[in-house]
Amino acid sequence: MALTNDGQLFTWGQNSRGQLGLGKGKSSSLSPELLESLCGVPLAQISAGGDHSFALSLSGAVFGWGRNSAGQLGLGHTEDIYVPTCVNNLNQKKTISISCGEEHTATLSKGGTVFTFGSGRYGQLGHNSLNDELRPRVVNELWGVNVSQITCGRNHTLALVKSSNKIYSFGCGEQGQLGNGQNTNQCIPLPVELHSAANNIHTIESIVAGGNHSFALCSKTTSESILEPNQRRGILTLGDNMINRWVSNCESKQWRTFKKEIKRVFSSPSCINGSFIVKSCDRHYQTSTHVSGLDMDSVRAAFDRLAEEERVLLEVKKVVKNDLLPCLGLNIVGIEALRVFIILPELLRVLKIQGHETKLRESYASAILRLDPWMQAVLENFWSELPETFLKTVKEHFHTKTAEMITAVTFDFRQIQAMRIQLRESAQVLQLLYKASCKNQRELKPEDFIIYEINDLCDKLNAIQRDINFFNCGFEWRNIDINAALAEEQQHIITLRLLSSSLCIFTLEAKYSLLKLRDMRRAINIGLRRNALLEDCFQQLMFASEQDLKGVLQVVYCENLERSNVNQSDFFYEVFKILKQELKKLDTETLKWFTVPELKFTEDRYFFFGLLCGLAFNNNCVVNMVFPLAMFKKLLDIRPSLDDFTELNPDVGRSLQYLLNYSDDDVENMCMTYTISCNNNEVELEPDEPGKAVTSLNKGVFVDAYVDYVLNKSVEQEFNEFKKGFYKVCDRNLVSLFKPEELREVMLGSDNYDWKVFKANTTYEDGFTAKHPTIVLFWKVFKKLSSQDKKAFLMFLTSSERVPILGMEQVKMRVRPLFNSTQDHMPKSYTCHNILDLPVYETKEILQTKLIEAIRHKRGFWDE
């Protein structure tokens, strides 16, 4: 094995047990091969044993691979390992040195603690036994003596204690390698009988264990080095002195040498990752999946200093672009290799300040997305622990660029071809940053990640689709190039779908636009009898394929073979109306909060109900029922809370909150037990302890258990069936775009009726204006309608009496004169387009009579 000063590890030789770390099935190598899986990990030391190998990082992470027949890799098993694997039992043990024997391994921690593992048949582990150890175990006999160096021979181990000038040995001594004057094995560490020359005048500097022999290097002068053994010849790292030389003398003849140094440091992720570790109080040894071990203040100071000289900064940029970024993100096994992703945004920051346009951001994003998902999760943790200013720096890089690209493709859709990859990757990195910011309470809020430019994209798409729709309906109200419009529509749809995995950037309007992007080429057709609506629906939907169900629903009634969106809306309105009516017939005292009435034609009513709700969601139709927020949280796998319980049962919910708020912390019995009444049944929340009392200490557990039982356990089977049916139709990723509150409004609509906004959004065509006498009469009549009649008018106009999730601003009525009509004609509506055709009535009374007659008219199909 060989470790270069820029942090690259090479191995060669025999690979019969995976000791080269190159992967299973890789043959032996006659020349050095780069061990790519450890690239980026700032290594401090390497050690080769019989048929196993170890590497140690600057922050104490230990990686082992190769033969493991006696547990010499310390992984808790005896299977050979063919690639470097972290020894988790040594994490945060402050390991500073490691040594391998034939079939055993020893490590030394800062402070002098020695761990051994592997074969113990000669006593070489020092545990006073001949047993093998599959995991690192402290050598108790050396505890507290402050060991300063360890070294392993073939089957023996030596430990140096410089403070007392002693060497301890243990293991095989058949050739006298233990230095105790005997040819016997030794199971515990005992002092070596040194030669008389090694007296008080001499100091033992270091020890070396060979195959069956040992050496001690002594000196008459005491070494003043305070470096750890593995840092006396370390890899190259970026320091203040090096930066100062570059910046202060970049115009000198030494520039060629400086360029080589810059290339050596900034082309190596290992050198970068080892450059800014927190050394005060040994905090870099605390590196974990949540702690990067970086000193971010020194990172910022270093790049600010580099930016003082443009020539140096541009050289760093060139090396990072050409040499560093292309190799990042591949085959990473050590979390320390992720530090570079925390460091590089500071380079992007100073380049931006200097006004240098660069594509480093795109390459940086690509490297992040090449990471294994588990490593991406660790990077999220690192980001979440960053000081606020540093996280904002990273976020701003990608937020600004993503917004710029969305604007560019909105107004020139042809650019999507060139920008597709960069746009997707930039948005995906923003999503990772959003998830990181959500892990801690921060100044960065979810709204800081929203890109409002996406609304322009949605508006442009809606306008194009409106033009196409009118063209297809024969309403050529303006000249359009239909082929160009279809091409532009397709590219904008591609852009939205491209961004759909990054929901943090979406406004509510954009989310809703995504919901409406369906493949119109796929459809499921159902033919229904009006007097057997549910039965016919069940027969045709329950056994349809998932692929068919995800298509556009097309409803045909036996009495009217025409397909239309009106039929679709009517179908959902009526099917949920029937279910509500059946639900009212049930005994409300014994109902669970999530109940579906029995259906004579099926026992799978909850699955069928979920299927219906999923179809409504997919087809942008309102579910004409009332559901609590808890249902939508459960659909999104979010645990319902006490507030959700209170929505269902306000009296009991307030009582439970009062119990939690009760300030006396010394009450051993609050006159309550873990027995509750649910749906007229007595339920023990702690079946193993019937009648368990509620106390000040366990009241929180009691409330959680109460809420969990009512909202989850009591309806577990029913809700799982409903959820199964719902997601047979719906795409989980699409549903997850919405928060629970948003999902409820998408499915149920809103009751926020702002009729002033409704009037303000109305437009007039074909001679009608806001001041036309008929229009003036219409709004006078409309204003005096009852709330119920106004909702009936909304139903008449849009086929739904509920307000869309985006509010009344989305209900844009278009009013046209109904030509060739008489005073006896009623108003007509085109619900697909929110068009009202209004006859020109002569009096207010006639208009009022005909309008009310129209909105209260029997609904054609259903109430004959």
Automatic annotation (TrEMBL):
Keyword Lipoprotein applies: no
Keywords from the UniProt entry: Repeat, Transferase, Ubl conjugation pathway
GO MF annotations in UniProt: ubiquitin protein ligase activity
Origin superkingdom: Eukaryota
PROSITE patterns tied to this protein: HECT (PS50237), RCC1_2 (PS00626), RCC1_3 (PS50012)
GO BP annotation list: protein ubiquitination; ubiquitin-dependent protein catabolic process
Coiled coil ranges: none
Domain annotation HECT: ranges: 606-861
Active-site annotation: 832
GO cellular component: cytoplasm
Gene3D superfamilies on file: Hect, E3 ligase catalytic domain, Hect, E3 ligase catalytic domains, Regulator of chromosome condensation 1/beta-lactamase-inhibitor protein II
SUPFAM superfamilies: Hect, E3 ligase catalytic domain, RCC1/BLIP-II
InterPro entries referenced in this protein's UniProt entry, alphabetically: HECT_dom, Hect_E3_ubiquitin_ligase, RCC1-like_dom, RCC1/BLIP-II, Reg_chr_condens, Ub-ligase/GTPase-reg
RCC repeats: 7-59, 60-111, 112-163, 165-220
Protein name per UniProt: HECT domain-containing protein
Organism encoding this protein: Silurus meridionalis (Southern catfish)
